[in-house]
Amino acid sequence: MHLRYLHLPGLTPLPYTARIQAYLVTLHLAHKRAPSxxxxxxxxxxxxxxxxxxxxxxxxDLNALTPSQIAHLRFAGRAEFHKALRGGQTTYHGPNQLxxxxxxxxxxxxxxxxxxxxxxxxxxxxxxxxxxxxxxRDAINPGVWTKGGEKIASxxxxxxxxxxxYGVGINVxxxxxxxxxxxxxxxxxxxxxxxxxxxxxxxxVCVEEVGRGFARSVAGVLECVEGKVEIVEEGDIIGxxxxxxxxxxxxxxxxxxxxxxSTNYAHHHKFExx
Length: 274
Description:
- It is a single chain.
- By secondary structure, this protein is of the alpha/beta class.
- Helices cover 28% and strands 22% of the residues.
- The strands form two sheets. The chain has an eight-stranded mixed β-sheet with strand order 7-8-9-10-6-2-1-11, sandwiched between helices. Strands 4-3-5 form a three-stranded mixed β-sheet, covered by helices on one side.
- Helix 3 packs across helix 6.
- Residues 241-255 and 258-274 have low confidence and may be disordered.
């Protein structure tokens, strides 16, 4: 077995990545319903991308935000806002951050839900080490942190019949940090975000390189994968299952270039979701 790896270029709206993720999850669930159908189970698939400036809420905040708080997140149209089924609270995704969704059957890799979250955190820590950054896990708060107590990566997952979705967000560029200052990050009062570039004190870290490093790290710790990564394209993911009963809409497939000056959108107002 190998890890299939798909990186989407440019900036990809979150609804489109959610459709790809839902498609992959459905394939796993269909196989679990009919394991004796004669088809091989779908391999684990890692999807990485960057989005336009976007705030998302996890299950803990799904019905907790007021209209004024949502309007604050949308920032007069400068950021998108979406609800998600992942765990956790409100967080940010955007340019110069690697968002990574891992879709796999935990049972196929001998993982409990807790062990799976630890696997993702350890894969992030290994990835950071490739770039000379020391990351660590926190005994209380999920995600990956620096020795100075700043959060460099968020973790939020969803499980359905042990099939995983969502995953991690790794802060790569300094440009992401002002966006986090507009919220109480993941409900953690007084905690600050950092990035790979901030920790290194230099610019020019490539998000795509971080994505490839994360794919290698995941493949190295995921049981039965044995470090094998297969790089695939969007057409490979969708086309291979054309005979499936699952229908996939490409109407929202929009990739855009990273906008210049996107960091100017953020300013320093924040709220704590209740």
